[in-house]
Amino acid sequence: xxxATGNHTNEAQPDGDKTALVVAMKxxxxxxxxxxxxxxxxxxxGTYSGDLSEDVTFSVGMQYNxxxxxxxxxxxxxxxxxxxxxxxxKSNSISSMKVTVATDKTATIYTKASIYRxxxxxxxxxxxxxxxxxxxxxxxxxxxxxxxxxxVLSSKTSTLAYSNRWVLxxxxxxxxxxxxxxxxxxxx
Length: 188
Hints:
By secondary structure, the chain is mainly beta.
């Protein structure tokens, strides 16, 4: 909860108006992708596409080990559903991470992931070996124009479990959904 003090207090505000997303990031070093925030799911797709009135949250903390040979870290998505539950996609085994730091900073990460639903404190496993792809564009000129794309495919049927609608265009990916509300991505 966010509480204002000093010459102004927010004691008259309802508790729901006192909440805020706070993203804390460490300095970006070589071979890293870090960040988090919310994305406005204006055109999500898939079995767990979610509730269009709620924002999807994500966090990513990926880096290569000291020798620069093995990627390590975690990606997590929280996708609110129309029934009030939340579907989580959590990486558990990193397949590959490609980081490009040139004029544009981009990254593509492939992992295996677990998908589970939390509803009223009850956790239900939905898939254990899903494929999670994350594409990132770090706009160095502006933190508000960073782009992030997620695609999650079921391990059981290869059907689309979730996507916030990234597409390939002329061999360069572009997202249709940017970090519209808050968040930041850093690529090193």
